[in-house]
Predict the structure.
Amino acid sequence: MTTALDIVTQASRKNGILARGERLEAEAAADGIFALNAMMHAWQLAGIDTTHSDLSLEDLFPLGPQFIEGTVYLLASRMAPEYTVPQSFDADDWFRKFQAAYLVITPVAMPEFDRMQSYYAGGKRGRIF
């Protein structure tokens, strides 16, 4: 099972600030979990409502396994400027995938009418379509 710490650690590796086998220092881990929580809350502004509540480093990652890699890349992208690391990847494609997965289309009620019914309005004949 993937934890929030796993996500933060992998994002740090993507940015090249953490080598394989190294562990995050407490301050970097705290910065990372803050960034992860802030990012997931901010997704709501883009229509991605994961019903997120703040995670601690030990918490299991709440989304399905198909969202792990995308979250890692998006978090790495978000954290890169703090470490003045040039981003060597494009995380936007992952964001669009998240939007598609969480897209909610609100049903619209349409009035029922006879599509072939004619009517007169102001002396002009027209159709309701």
Notes: Residues 4-101 form a domain with the Hypothetical protein yqbg fold (CATH 1.10.3230.20). The chain has a mean pLDDT of 83. The CA atoms of residues 30 and 57 lie 8 Å apart.
